[in-house]
Design brief:
- InterPro entries: Glutathione_peroxidase, GPX_CS, Thioredoxin-like_sf.
- GO terms for molecular function: glutathione peroxidase activity; selenium binding.
- Belongs to the glutathione peroxidase family.
- This protein has three helices and five strands.
- It is α+β, with helices and mostly antiparallel strands.
- It has a single domain, classed as Glutaredoxin.
- It is globular and about 35 Å long.
């Protein structure tokens, strides 16, 4: 298993554990597949769950949280939900990434940087925090993953 596949499997398992632990207190994890980062989600919507289970991360993984249909999180066709989140929360880093692995236009400073960037939204629908995509649930934040406070 590649390092990236191992990291993805561990992260997916962390999301399941977090949903199981905090779901009774009202936490709801939502997953929004996107193909704008390294073309990592090229399949059709009907292929996403089988792909998670058997390919990436594989190992029989089944999410216990809601997955939505694939869509754009950045650019001209970004989902309005993400426009709202990005306008409410500053980016977690100034670096956008390598343009040859990012597939949208126009690119903006508040854009989501990569798959698994995380937002915490309160029960009132107001965004509270935004985390860098490499921030893990169990092992503490990545060295450059200080969360940004949302307005």
């Amino acid at each position: 298993m590649t390092e990236e596949a191992h990291r993805l499997l561990a992260f997916a398992a962390e999301l399941n554990a977090l949903q199981e632990e905090l779901g009774p207190f009202g936490l709801v994890i939502l997953g929004f597949p996107c193909n704008q980062f390294g073309k990592q989600e090229p399949g059709e919507n009907s292929e996403i769950l089988p792909s998670l289970k058997y390919v990436r991360p594989g190992g029989g993984f089944v999410p216990n949280f809601q997955l939505f249909e694939k869509g754009d999180v950045n650019g001209e066709k970004e989902q309005k939900f993400y426009t709202f989140l990005k306008n409410s929360c500053p980016p977690t880093t100034e670096l956008l990434g390598s343009p040859d692995r990012l597939f949208w236009e126009p690119m903006k400073i508040h854009d989501i940087r990569w798959n698994f960037e995380k937002f915490l939204v309160g029960p009132d629908g107001i965004p509270v925090m935004r985390w860098y995509h490499r921030t893990t649930v169990n092992n503490g934040p990545h060295k450059s993953s200080t969360p940004s406070q949302c307005s």
